[in-house]
Amino acid sequence: MRAAYADVIAPFEQALMPLRIDGAADLEPRAKVWKWEEHVLAGTFDLWLCNDPDRPHTWLVVSVGLWTEPHFLDQEPAARLGHFGFTPHQPLLFLPRPPGPATLTARVTGGVFPHKTSSRTKAADAIGVAHQWTANDPAVLAARVSRDLTTLLPHLTTPR
Description:
Helix content: 10-25%
């Protein structure tokens, strides 16, 4: 997955690795891969950023991949991916890599979100946060995500 999407993953690692705090720098970026069909794989690339300032012991995680429409997971054979916990608009990576230009997305999530089948979070005091960006150029997208994250979370740029 990493080799096939090096042009997408590398700009994010270059832009975001220096910002990671709260022990996130000790965690390796994660690429998870699931078999979708016999010769098709789907996966995610996640980079831990920091602890969520509003929710102790919860990480803010940056996920990077291709933009997927909400109806994508409703159609077969992609519907079988639903049991892996994928949600609409989640950045996904596919092998083999789809041909042609693609819209890329980066999503930062933290806290607790309602599940696809529920309109409420589990805990009354649960706070969920998500920020999502899209672009066709991974370097432009990584730069924008980095700039916005340091604006939203200024403590990421505090000298350590």
